[in-house]
Inverse folding.
C-alpha cells in the first residue's frame, strides 16, 4: 500500500493538473489593457476619479474628452509613469506595477522629446535594446521609412522640426514589435498629410491585430479608425461604447410634397418624426437592416406623396460628444 | 534584463557626455591648464628669487605645493563638470518629456538610475584620473618631483568626484535642473572653506573652530577625500619644513585618511544613492 500509494494518488492529480493547464491555455488572452477604479489627486485637485476601461487584443479604442479631462494622466498611470492613488492596472495580462508588462508596449507621449545628440537610427536602436526585443537593422530602418524619415536616419534629432520629432516618436512606438500601442495626441505637430499617415499607420496596426489606445482631439480621426470610444470628462468616464452604440441614432431627411394624413401616419410609423415646412426628418432604429428607407419611400409614393429628395444623415461623433459633455456638466459649465 | 538596462543607460550617459560641447570645452580647458603648468614648472628650476637661486630641493618642495594647487583646480573642474552633467538628468529629463518614453519601456527606475550613475562615475573619475595623471607626468618631467602615492591620490580624487555627482543626482531628483548643479557645487565649495576654517582653528588650537571642518567633512565627504588625496601627492618633507603651524595652509594635509573615514565615505555614497532611488521611483513623470 505504502509503495503503490503515491503513484495511485499521483495519477488522478496529474490528470487534474493537465486539465487545469489545458483550461488555462484555452482561456481567451487577457485584454491588451485593463484598468479598474483608477484615482489620482494632485494636491487638492482630483485629476482622475475612478476610471475603468479596457482595450481588447487587436482593438482600436479612442480616448476623447475636453482639455483637463484627465486623459493624459490616465495614460501615464496605465504605463506606470504616474503612481495611481487607487485602482488596478493590467497590461498585456501582467500587473502594471511589473516593468516586464511593458515589454510589448509602444508609447508616443503627448510631450515628446528625444535625445538631441543621437541620430534617428540610434534612438530606435536604444529603444529596441531597452525593450529587450531583437529587431534587425533592416526592420528598424523600415520603421523610419514608414513614418517618412528614412532619408534622415543618420541625422541628429537636435536638428529635427517638431513634426519630424513626432514622426520619430511614432517610429519609436512601433519599432519593438508591440502588441499594444498607446498614442497620446499623435498628430498635434503634424500637417494634414502627416495626419493621414498616422491614420494609415493605425489602420495597418489594426489589420495586424495590434491593440491601439488613441488619445486625440481630432474627432474625425478617432471616428475613422476606432472600434470603440471612451469619453472622459472631469476625471470620470462620461460614456463609452462602440461607435454604433454611441452614435446609435441615424436619421433620414425627406423633402416631400402633397403629404396627406395617411402619408403623415406612414412617416410617423417609421420612427420619431420632425417637420420643418416641406422637410421631414425621421429617426431610424440602430438595428436597421437597410430596408427601412426604401420601404418608406415606396409606401409614400404609393400614397400619392411626391418625393423630391431623400438624404440620409448621421449624427457625427462630434455632435454626440458635445451632447455627452453638456449633459454631464448640467448647468455648471459655460 | 536589468543588467542590460543598466549598461545601455550607462553607455547612453557616456555618449551624451562625449557629444555635448560643454564636455569638449572642459577638455580644452584642461589641456590649457596642463600646458600652462608645464610652462610654469619648467621655469621653476633655476628660478631667481630675492633669496637667490632655488635649489632643486626647494624647487621640489614648491612643486609639491603647486601640484596640490593644480590638482585642486582639476578636481574643481571635474566637480563642476559632473555636477552640471548630473543636474539636468533626472528632473530635467522628466520635465522635458525625454524620460517619458524611456521609463515606459520595460525598465526599473532603479536600473535607469544605476546606469546613469555608473556612466557619470566612469566619466567623472575617468576625467580626474587621466587629467591628474597627465599633470603628475608634467611635474615629473619638468621638475623631477614624483608624488609618494600617486595611485592612492588619484583614486581619492575620483572618489571625491563620485561623492559630488551622487549628491548632484539626489538634488536633481528633487529640485529643478539648474538649481541642482549650482547647489551641489556650492556645497562642495562651502565644505572646502569649512575645511580651511577648521584647519586654521586647529593651527590656533581653537577646538570650536576646528570642529567646523570635522563636522562638514562628515556631512559631505568631498573635503575629507580631497585632504587624503593631497596627502598622497605632497612631498612628506614639506610638512616638516613648513613646521607645526602649517595647519592653516589649505594645500597641505597633515595625515593620510583613516580606513574608518573611507568606510564612512562609501556608506555616505550608498545612503545618498538609496535616497535618490527612493525619490526617483516615487516621482510622477
Amino acid at each position: 500500500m505504502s509503495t503503490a500509494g503515491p503513484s495511485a494518488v499521483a495519477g488522478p492529480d496529474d490528470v487534474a493538473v493537465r486539465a487545469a493547464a489545458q483550461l488555462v491555455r484555452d482561456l481567451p488572452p487577457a485584454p491588451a489593457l485593463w484598468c479598474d477604479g483608477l484615482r489620482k489627486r494632485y494636491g487638492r485637485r482630483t485629476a482622475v476619479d475612478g476610471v475603468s476601461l479596457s482595450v481588447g487584443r487587436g482593438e482600436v479604442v479612442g480616448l476623447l474628452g475636453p482639455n483637463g479631462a484627465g486623459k493624459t494622466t490616465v495614460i501615464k498611470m496605465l504605463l506606470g509613469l504616474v503612481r495611481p492613488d487607487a485602482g488596478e492596472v493590467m497590461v498585456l495580462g501582467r500587473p502594471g506595477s511589473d516593468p516586464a508588462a511593458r515589454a510589448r508596449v509602444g508609447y508616443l507621449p503627448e510631450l515628446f522629446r528625444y535625445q538631441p545628440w543621437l541620430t534617428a537610427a540610434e534612438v530606435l536602436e536604444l529603444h529596441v535594446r531597452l525593450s529587450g526585443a531583437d529587431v534587425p537593422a533592416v526592420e528598424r530602418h523600415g520603421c523610419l521609412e514608414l513614418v517618412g524619415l528614412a532619408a534622415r536616419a543618420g541625422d541628429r534629432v537636435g536638428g529635427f522640426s517638431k513634426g519630424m520629432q513626432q514622426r520619430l516618436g511614432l517610429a519609436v512606438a512601433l519599432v519593438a514589435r508591440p502588441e499594444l500601442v498607446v498614442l497620446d495626441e499623435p498628430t498635434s505637430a503634424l500637417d494634414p498629410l502627416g495626419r493621414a499617415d498616422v491614420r494609415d499607420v493605425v489602420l495597418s496596426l489594426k489589420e495586424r491585430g495590434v491593440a491601439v489606445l488613441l488619445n486625440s482631439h481630432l474627432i474625425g480621426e478617432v471616428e475613422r479608425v476606432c472600434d470603440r470610444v471612451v469619453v472622459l470628462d472631469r476625471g470620470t468616464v462620461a460614456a463609452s461604447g462602440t461607435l454604433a452604440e454611441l452614435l446609435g441614432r441615424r436619421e433620414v431627411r425627406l423633402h416631400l410634397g402633397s403629404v396627406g394624413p395617411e402619408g403623415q401616419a406612414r412617416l410617423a410609423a417609421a420612427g420619431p418624426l420632425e417637420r420643418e415646412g416641406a422637410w421631414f426628418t425621421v429617426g431610424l432604429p440602430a438595428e436597421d437592416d437597410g430596408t427601412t428607407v426604401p420601404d418608406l419611400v415606396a409606401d409614400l409614393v404609393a400614397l400619392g406623396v411626391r418625393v423630391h429628395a431623400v438624404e440620409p444623415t448621421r449624427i457625427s461623433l462630434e455632435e454626440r460628444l458635445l451632447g455627452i459633455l453638456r449633459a454631464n456638466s448640467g448647468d455648471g459649465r459655460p | 534584463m536589468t543588467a542590460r538596462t543598466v549598461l545601455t543607460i550607462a553607455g547612453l550617459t557616456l555618449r551624451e557626455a562625449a557629444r555635448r560641447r560643454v564636455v569638449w570645452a572642459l577638455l580644452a580647458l584642461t589641456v590649457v591648464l596642463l600646458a600652462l603648468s608645464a610652462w610654469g614648472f619648467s621655469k621653476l628650476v633655476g628660478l631667481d628669487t630675492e633669496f637667490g637661486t632655488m635649489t632643486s630641493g626647494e624647487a621640489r618642495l614648491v612643486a609639491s605645493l603647486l601640484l596640490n594647487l593644480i590638482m585642486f583646480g582639476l578636481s574643481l573642474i571635474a566637480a563642476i563638470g559632473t555636477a552640471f552633467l548630473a543636474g539636468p538628468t533626472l528632473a530635467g529629463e522628466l520635465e522635458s518629456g525625454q524620460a517619458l518614453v524611456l521609463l515606459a519601456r520595460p525598465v526599473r527606475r532603479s536600473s535607469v538610475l544605476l546606469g546613469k550613475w555608473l556612466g557619470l562615475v566612469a566619466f567623472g573619475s575617468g576625467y580626474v584620473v587621466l587629467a591628474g595623471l597627465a599633470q603628475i607626468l608634467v611635474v615629473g618631467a619638468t621638475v623631477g618631483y614624483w608624488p609618494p602615492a600617486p595611485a592612492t591620490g588619484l583614486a581619492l580624487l575620483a572618489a571625491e568626484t563620485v561623492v559630488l555627482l551622487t549628491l548632484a543626482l539626489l538634488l536633481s531628483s528633487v529640485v529643478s535642473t539648474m538649481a541642482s548643479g549650482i547647489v551641489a557645487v556650492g556645497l562642495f565649495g562651502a565644505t572646502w572653506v569649512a575645511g580651511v576654517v577648521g584647519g586654521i582653528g586647529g593651527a590656533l588650537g581653537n577646538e570650536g573652530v576646528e570642529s567646523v571642518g570635522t563636522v562638514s567633512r562628515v556631512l559631505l565627504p568631498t573635503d575629507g577625500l580631497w585632504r587624503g588625496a593631497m596627502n598622497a601627492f605632497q612631498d612628506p618633507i614639506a610638512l616638516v619644513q613648513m613646521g607645526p603651524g602649517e595647519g592653516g595652509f589649505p594645500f597641505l594635509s597633515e595625515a593620510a585618511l583613516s580606513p574608518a573615514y573611507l568606510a564612512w565615505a562609501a556608506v555616505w555614497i550608498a545612503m545618498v544613492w538609496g535616497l535618490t532611488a527612493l525619490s526617483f521611483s516615487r516621482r510622477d513623470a
Q: What stands out?
A: Residues 109-143 of chain B form the longest helix (35 residues). Residues 2-282 of chain B form one domain.
